[in-house]
Each structure stands twice: as structure tokens, then as C-alpha cells.
Amino acid sequence: MKHAISWFEIPVKDMDRAATFYEAIFGFTMIPLETPQFRMRMFPTDDRMSVGGTLMESTSHTPSATDGPLIYLNGNPDLQVILDKVEGAGGKILMPKTEISPEYGFMGLFLDTEGNRIALHNIPEGMQSS
């Protein structure tokens, strides 16, 4: 198994607000994907075989700062750069940049504009695979 995760969805109630938040903190443009059944904004990836995911508009989702699965988004090369943008974009820092270990890098947690608890992880420069 190359990756433990192949796809993720972050449920949102206000797509425009959520997309603006993620675009602001990561500095990229999300890719719109709309069908009669779904309204999504995809996170950009290098290729279709990479782990990918979307913001998924949902009226039935109950956001939580404490419950449910925790998604770790790529915070390389330094997740502090991303965390520094969270509050200005309307989110809240739940855990500052924290070292997991010298081998496994750093993590941080934030609450997005929709009330979802999301994590960031970055791998130390010497540990990244090419």
C-alpha cells in the first residue's frame, strides 16, 4: 500500500467562505467541481495518483472542534507559515507548531471557518523522500 489515505472530504456549510479560507492560508487556488449532486472544491495535487481531497458542501454536517476523525494536511516545508495565516483568514489556532519527535517532524491544529478541526504536519527537511 503506497498511501493509507486515498481521498478525503472536509464538509462545509458555506463553500465560498471555506474555499476563501483554505486558499488564503495555503496560497493556492482550489479547483471547482460541481455536479447536480455535489458542490466541491478540490485541493490541487501534482497528479491524479496523489492523495487528494475536497471541500464538500454539506447541510447535514455538524462541525466539531473535538470529535471525529482528524485530517492532517501537508504543511511542508514549514507549517508555521500556514498557521500564521489562519487567524487572519477567519480560523482559530487550537495547537501551535509542536514537535512530535526529531524523526517525525511537527504538527499543529486549527479550527477552520466552518468549525472543522484540521491538523497540519511537516516532515523535517532531511527526512523528506524525493
Structure at a glance:
The chain has 130 residues and is an alpha/beta fold. The chain has 2 helices and 8 strands; from the N terminus they run βαββββαβββ.
Number of domains: 1
Radius of gyration: 15 Å
CATH architecture descriptor text? Roll
Report the end-to-end length measured between terminal Cα atoms.
Answer: 18 Å
Q: Strand-and-helix sequence, N→C?
A: EHEEEEHEEE
Query: Count of DSSP E strands?
Result: 8
Separate helix tally:
2
Helical percentage? 10-25%
| CATH H-level homologous superfamily name | 2,3-Dihydroxybiphenyl 1,2-Dioxygenase, domain 1
Describe the 3D structure.
With 130 residues, the chain is of the alpha/beta class. The chain has one domain: Roll (2,3-Dihydroxybiphenyl 1,2-Dioxygenase, domain 1). It is 15% helix and 36% strand. It has two helices and eight strands; from the N terminus they run βαββββαβββ. It has helices spanning 15-26, 79-86, and strands at 7-12, 31-34, 39-42, 52-57, 71-74, 92-101, 105-111, 117-122. The chain has a four-stranded mixed sheet. Strands 5-8-7-6 form a four-stranded mixed sheet. A hairpin with a 5-residue loop joins strand 7 (105-111) and strand 8. The longest helix is centred in the first third of the chain and has 12 residues, at 15-26. It is globular, with a radius of gyration of 15 Å. The model has no long low-confidence stretch (mean pLDDT 91).
